[in-house]
Amino acid sequence: MSFVGTAAREGRVNISPKGGSGTLVVVDPHTVAYLDLTGSGAETIAHLRENGRITVMWCAFEGAPQIVRIHGSGRVVAFDDAEFEEWAARFPENPGTRAVVIVTAERISDSCGMAVPRMTYEADRDQLDRWTAAKGPHGVRDYWARKNAESLDGLPAPDVEPLL
Hints:
Largest sheet: 7 strands, antiparallel
Distance between the termini: 36 Å
Helix content: 10-25%
Strand order of the largest sheet: 2-1-5-6-7-4-3
Structural class: alpha+beta
CATH topology: Pnp Oxidase, Chain A
CATH class: Mainly Beta
Number of helices: 3
Order of helices and strands: EEEEHEEHEH
Radius of gyration: 16 Å
Number of strands: 7
Number of domains: 1
CATH superfamily: Electron Transport, Fmn-binding Protein, Chain A
Strand content: 35-45%
Shape: globular
């Protein structure tokens, strides 16, 4: 599990939890990429399109207390972009995939996590997979067009037209 932080130039800061088996890959020593899955909002996409600033953070919930952060720039490769298939091929197929986010590290840091609680991993959740599979491609695109078109601050997010 990781947390992604982005912010509009003016407006809100957003922190999004990310997770799921196979949804993050290390591309090279300075680049990671993750699947942006369908969600209730599209803040990360909107913020990255506006200014590209991103921080990704991991906390150790078991073992030694530690926190790792990547401060950097991010870009969005949306499902209808020319390079989407190339990037998506790095991940397991997921019916909720909306985009791939590519993060280039400008700074990587670690710190103690002595106040982070200990928690035990039980299992990945499957609700999003079941929800998107039940909606089907048309239903998911309609949801993106209705619910994910802009950020809370009114910034444009995925540019999606519903399938007819």
